[in-house]
């Protein structure tokens, strides 16, 4: 049974915040540097508006392979705001803060703006003449058509099987690809990328690829309808102006007002709201975060993993390790849209024969046996592990995430269901604590997304 | 999935400290010490006791019916309760069984009983207003009443012991 004891709310096994496989021993040491990269990010020469005590390098540290929990550069700031910490992705991360309950924090994000520390995620840069081709071998994304300062959701794939190693966002910067992967997959991804890069270098010695991980680089997500208003206040006049035409899926370098601190601002996020993810040099992460909070005392609150999970679920977004894993292909996961047009035609990525076959019509031997769907469930919320059954009581799928939706006031879930039962409106049953509950396959996102989109289709 | 504390059922560590129902926030040490001398070990079972799984039980005056609920600590940590599953009246239960569940936004928790017997009454009002469990979990928002068929099992703690237990957690 998917039941947890109350006290485990404080521990890692809570649904949706599971500390993932951080203990996998890495076979090969990947190249990691903590140096900043050629992406326009420079160390601040001066920082005004913040006391010098906050500019010191925070006591951040990445988790070790021995299982030691890491802390982001914002750990102390979280503690000061009454954070309740849980182990997540190898880090001690805030699940909620003392000022708001999870539901209040969720609603606050939908109505105003919230700031999430996502500095536990892994920020990579791939550069060099072979970078694009290398990443196109690993992912089904069409990076050749990805414009500069544009991002795309993608997946790192296993060779042959096309199973998802991790989901990721890839951004084309002027001189590199900026790639953000999940904290929970840190060790696995680093081992995978090391192995893949070794193979690439042997096969393509002329097409060099440089890979760097921005260790301790800060990353915060500013999400909610007031996110843009809040962010403008802490940016230089020029950056604030540029923000007005920064659309969903785009990024820009920005300068923090009154300082030389440069950040990378990407418009998008994990809540379905308008918002930004802001990558900040380690030395300025705490100061910039504090500056944001101080500049919007009435509008902005810190939010933790608890609200992040319910928000992303309402937005129909996957959490790796739950809704996606090594055995899931992008087609099964309902992520066929990330597979680029030219990639469908030519393939050339890991698992292409399986994935391209799955994309074909059923009459041509294509299709998949299971699909990721959304469900609304009556009565008790159906959480990870609950079985989906049909009229006859036969198992036809399982739930991978679920919660009571604070916005819809209904129980929502995500899961995998047998092909054929996946159409929205299909009535099924979900077994929670031995009892069958009525459930209906429901289109995702459960609530409409509110992205700040470009007024007209953009010329490529 | 059934990650749950293993109850040390073998060890019936019934301690002799006993307190009357009291404010959940204040430790009434002096009173406790006085009462400790007045009760025998078996009588202590009748006083409000807490389990390591964060339920409480309290005997009615007849000593045969117990009221069961979840602790203030549990209710607080669960956060906003959105759904409660109560047992059927007349259901026969054994100590250590899950007799229902509490769902909050972040988690689902079984309600475990440390005593066996028969369910005589459930707090149906909670089905209509599950959020009330957050307001008065150790009073109005009790979960079920149980006619006992044996002695409680597992470790039971007094208010003070339980408070210390949750502070260590």
TrEMBL record, chain A:
Q: Which residues form the GCVT N-terminal domain?
A: 74-342
Q: Sum up the protein's function in the record's words.
A: The glycine cleavage system catalyzes the degradation of glycine.
Q: Might you name a Gene Ontology BP term for this protein?
A: glycine catabolic process
Q: Which Pfam families match?
A: GCV_T, GCV_T_C
The organism encoding this protein is: Bimuria novae-zelandiae CBS 107.79
Q: Where in the cell is it found?
A: Mitochondrion
NCBIfam families from the entry?
gcvT, PRK00389.1
Q: Which keywords annotate this record?
A: Aminotransferase, Mitochondrion, Transferase, Transit peptide
What Enzyme Commission number(s) apply to this enzyme? 2.1.2.10
Q: Which family does it belong to?
A: Belongs to the GcvT family.
User: TM spans, by residue?
Assistant: none
The reaction(s) annotated as catalysed by this protein in its Swiss-Prot or TrEMBL entry are:
N(6)-[(R)-S(8)-aminomethyldihydrolipoyl]-L-lysyl-[protein] + (6S)-5,6,7,8-tetrahydrofolate = N(6)-[(R)-dihydrolipoyl]-L-lysyl-[protein] + (6R)-5,10-methylene-5,6,7,8-tetrahydrofolate + NH4(+)
Q: What is this protein called?
A: Aminomethyltransferase
Start and end of every Aminomethyltransferase C-terminal domain? 370-446
GO molecular function ontology, one term from the record: transaminase activity
Residues given in the record as substrate binding sites: 277
How this chain assembles, per its entry, is: The glycine cleavage system is composed of four proteins: P, T, L and H.
What GO cellular component entries does it have? glycine cleavage complex; mitochondrion
TrEMBL record, chain B:
Keyword Amino-acid biosynthesis attached: no
Classification via Gene3D superfamilies: 2.40.50.100
> Mind telling me which Pfam families this protein's record contains?
GCV_H
On this chain, the residues bearing N6-lipoyllysine are: 106
Which residue spans adopt a coiled-coil conformation according to this UniProt entry? none
List keywords of the entry alphabetically: Lipoyl, Mitochondrion, Transit peptide
- From the UniProt record, give one GO term of the biological process aspect: glycine decarboxylation via glycine cleavage system
InterPro entries attached to this UniProt entry: 2-oxoA_DH_lipoyl-BS (IPR003016), Biotin_lipoyl (IPR000089), GCV_H (IPR002930), GCV_H/Fam206 (IPR033753), GCV_H_sub (IPR017453), Single_hybrid_motif (IPR011053)
Where does this protein reside within or beyond the cell?
Mitochondrion
What cofactor is needed? Answer: (R)-lipoate
CDD domains named in the record: GCS_H
Q: Which domain of life is it from?
A: Eukaryota
Cofactor annotation remark: Binds 1 lipoyl cofactor covalently.
PROSITE patterns according to UniProt: BIOTINYL_LIPOYL, LIPOYL
Q: Which residues form the Lipoyl-binding domain?
A: 65-147
How is this protein annotated for GO cellular component?
glycine cleavage complex; mitochondrion
Q: Which family does it belong to?
A: Belongs to the GcvH family.
Annotated function: The H protein shuttles the methylamine group of glycine from the P protein to the T protein.
Kindly state the subunit structure of this protein.
The glycine cleavage system is composed of four proteins: P, T, L and H.
Please give the name of this protein: Glycine cleavage system H protein
């Amino acid at each position: 049974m998917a039941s947890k004891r109350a006290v485990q709310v404080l521990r890692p096994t809570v649904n949706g915040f599971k500390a993932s496989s951080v203990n996998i021993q890495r076979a090969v040491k990947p190249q990691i540097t903590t140096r900043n990269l050629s992406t326009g990010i420079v160390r601040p020469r001066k920082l005004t508006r913040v006391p010098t005590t906050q500019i010191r390098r925070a006591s951040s540290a990445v988790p070790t392979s021995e299982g030691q929990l890491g802390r982001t550069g914002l750990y102390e700031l979280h503690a000061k705001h009454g954070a309740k910490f849980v182990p997540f992705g190898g880090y001690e991360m805030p699940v909620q803060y003392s000022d708001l309950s999870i539901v209040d924090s969720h609603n606050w994000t939908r109505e105003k703006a919230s700031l999430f520390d996502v500095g536990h995620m892994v920020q990579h840069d791939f550069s060099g003449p072979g970078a694009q081709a290398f990443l196109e071998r690993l992912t089904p994304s069409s990076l050749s058509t990805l414009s500069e300062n544009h991002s795309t959701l993608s997946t790192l794939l296993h060779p042959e099987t096309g199973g998802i190693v991790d989901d990721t966002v890839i951004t084309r910067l002027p001189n590199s690809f900026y790639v953000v992967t999940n904290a929970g997959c840190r060790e696995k991804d680093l081992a995978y990328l090391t192995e893949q890069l070794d193979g690439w270098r042997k096969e393509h010695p002329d097409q060099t690829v440089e890979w760097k991980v921005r260790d301790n680089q800060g990353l915060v997500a500013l999400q909610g309808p007031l996110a843009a208003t809040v962010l403008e206040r802490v940016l230089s006049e020029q950056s604030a102006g540029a923000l007005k035409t920064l659309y969903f899926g785009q990024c820009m370098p920005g300068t923090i007002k009154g300082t030389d601190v440069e950040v990378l601002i990407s418009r998008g996020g994990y809540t379905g709201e308008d918002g930004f993810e802001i990558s900040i040099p380690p030395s300025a992460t705490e100061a910039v975060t504090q500056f944001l909070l101080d500049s919007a005392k009435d509008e902005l609150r810190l939010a933790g993993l608890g609200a992040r999970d319910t928000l992303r679920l309402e937005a129909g977004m996957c959490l790796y390790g739950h809704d996606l894993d090594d055995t899931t292909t992008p087609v099964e996961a309902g992520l066929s849209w990330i597979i680029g047009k030219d990639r469908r035609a030519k393939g050339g990525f890991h698992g292409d024969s399986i994935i391209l076959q799955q994309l074909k019509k059923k009459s041509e031997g294509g299709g998949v046996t299971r699909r990721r769907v959304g469900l609304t469930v009556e009565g008790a919320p159906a959480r990870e592990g609950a079985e989906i059954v049909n009229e006859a009581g036969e198992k036809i799928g399982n739930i991978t995430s679920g919660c009571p939706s604070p916005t819809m006031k209904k129980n929502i879930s995500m899961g995998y269901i047998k092909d054929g039962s996946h159409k929205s409106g299909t009535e099924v049953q979900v077994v929670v604590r031995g009892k069958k509950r009525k459930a209906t396959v429901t289109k995702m996102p459960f609530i409409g997304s509110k992205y700040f989109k470009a007024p007209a289709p953009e010329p490529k | 999935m059934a990650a749950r504390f293993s109850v040390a059922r073998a060890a019936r560590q019934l301690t002799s400290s006993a307190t009357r129902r009291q404010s959940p926030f204040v430790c009434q040490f002096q009173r406790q010490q006085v009462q400790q001398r007045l009760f025998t070990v078996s009588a202590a079972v009748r006083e409000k006791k807490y389990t390591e799984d964060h339920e409480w039980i309290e005997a009615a005056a007849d000593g045969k019916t117990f009221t069961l609920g979840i602790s203030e600590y549990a209710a607080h940590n669960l956060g906003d309760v959105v759904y409660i599953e109560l047992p059927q009246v007349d259901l026969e239960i054994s100590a250590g069984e899950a007799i229902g569940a509490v769902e909050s936004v972040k988690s689902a928790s079984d309600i475990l009983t440390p005593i066996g017997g028969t369910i005589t009454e459930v707090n149906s009002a909670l089905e209509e207003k599950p959020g009330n469990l957050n307001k008065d979990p150790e009073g109005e928002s009790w979960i079920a009443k149980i006619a006992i068929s044996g002695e409680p099992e597992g470790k039971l703690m007094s208010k003070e012991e339980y408070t210390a237990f949750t502070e260590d957690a």
